[in-house]
């Protein structure tokens, strides 16, 4: 049984932990709001990009297009997994969920006899992936500390992917991130980047509902203009060799933003739970403390009374 | 006959402009395009330069013109809609000579970074020239 002093120390330590978790929750709430608005403001660009690509795909049949980034090289032996995680912990199961999805994917590929390489963004995922897949980690990149440069960071990453692809270091690239559904629900998502997968483009995997309806209306539109095929300036291949790498950059950019919002959401929920747990624990400790204090007083009283009686 | 165009100018981080306009004049990779309602389907890359957006003339107001500096990206034209996805765009009112110099330095750096002798090099070189040509426009 712990002494009164021990209990007092524990109570004060739990109180200060609760203060910290509550502060972290409030900080995440503020950051979440900003991250959410960043996601919202980046959506028009990404949506329009994929809409235009989708329309062009409808008209020309992108798979028939002679561009390796769109149609692949016909091989799928070497898979590169681009796993985006966070730089900081204390955000619940956020990182573990992404890593779990990625490792399930990797294990399936390994069973099929494929080669798996992992490029990890963020050090929290790296710690887990190194343990799970030693020797498979190609490299890891840290997110920039400055928030404003996410787009540049994403374009850098996509340039690196393109050059790795050109060198023939991998055949298929899949991106793993956490889709920000709401504050309490973040969905770990996998999306194939190279070769461009039209299944994903149709938005059936997870995309929000209005995305898929707009796709239908676009299809209708494409049909009405079926006779008039797009013209390209300067030329079809130039436009696609500009658009496709750009599209990868934008996809990564969106994934990073979604991830940032998800991370804050997950942290907010985790810290809310932690604060509540600390509160429960404090209630219990206080009850115990008061009981012991009362018991001590009672014992002392009994000692006094029995001492007086003995006289 | 469609009389107006829906026009959107979108950057990675924000939607800079959205509304219906009478016509859009934009610098494509192969020269200047004037896009009127009913334009055929077109996808083109952008050259760094000026973008003009002309509003519809009404009885009360003359057709206003909005100008932007636009860099890096592409646009899609459809009969009823034009969408420009650019890397950087600034309304001309806010585009100062010093900003232009920054853009020129940036383009020079890109030119240095691209490999010699390829199409990319001549493209990067042309982008620098395009930007330098804007200097006299801004000086007054």
Summarize the structure in words.
The complex is a heterodimer of chains A (311) and B (140). By secondary structure, chain A is an alpha/beta fold. Chain A folds into two domains: 4-26 and 273-310, Helix Hairpins, CATH 1.10.287; 44-267, Pyruvate Kinase, Chain: A, domain 1. Chain A has helices spanning 4-60, 68-71, 94-111, 123-132, 150-166, 198-201, 209-224, 236-310, and strands spanning 78-84, 115-121, 137-141, 172-180, 186-194, 231-233. In chain A, helix 1 (4-60) packs antiparallel against helix 8 (236-310), helix 3 (94-111) runs parallel beside helix 4 (123-132) and helix 5 packs across helix 8 (236-310). Chain A starts with a helix and ends with a helix. Chain B is 26% helix and 42% strand. Chain B is built from three helices and eight strands; from the N terminus they run ββββββββααα. In chain B, strands 1, 2, 3, 4, 5, 6, 7 and 8 form an eight-stranded mixed beta sheet that branches. In chain B, strand 3 (23-28) and strand 4 form a beta hairpin. Chain B is globular, with a radius of gyration of 16 Å. The N and C termini of chain B lie far apart (40 Å). The model of chain B has no long low-confidence stretch (mean pLDDT 84). The chains are: A alpha/beta (311), B alpha+beta (140).
Spatial strand order of the main sheet of chain A? 3-2-1-4-5
Low-confidence stretches of chain B: none
- CATH top level assignment of the largest domain in chain B: Mainly Beta
Helix content of chain A: 55-70%
Alpha carbon gyration radius of chain A: 28 Å
Radius of gyration of chain B: 16 Å
The shape of chain B is globular
CATH fold category name of the largest domain in chain A: Pyruvate Kinase, Chain: A, domain 1
CATH architecture of the largest domain in chain A: 3-Layer(aba) Sandwich
Query: What structural category do the secondary elements of chain B indicate?
Result: alpha+beta
Helix proportion range of chain B:
25-40%
Beta percentage of chain B is 35-45%
H-E order of chain A: HHEHEHEHEEHHEH
Count helical runs of chain A: 8
Architecture per CATH nomenclature, i.e. the level-2 architecture of the largest domain in chain B: Sandwich
- The end-to-end distance of chain A, rounded to whole angstroms, is 33 Å
Report the top-level CATH class of the largest domain in chain A: Alpha Beta
Structural class of chain A: alpha/beta
User: What's the CATH H-level homologous superfamily of the largest domain in chain B?
Assistant: F0F1 ATP synthase delta/epsilon subunit, N-terminal
Enumerate how many helices of chain B there are, as a single number: 3
Largest sheet of chain A: 5 strands, mixed
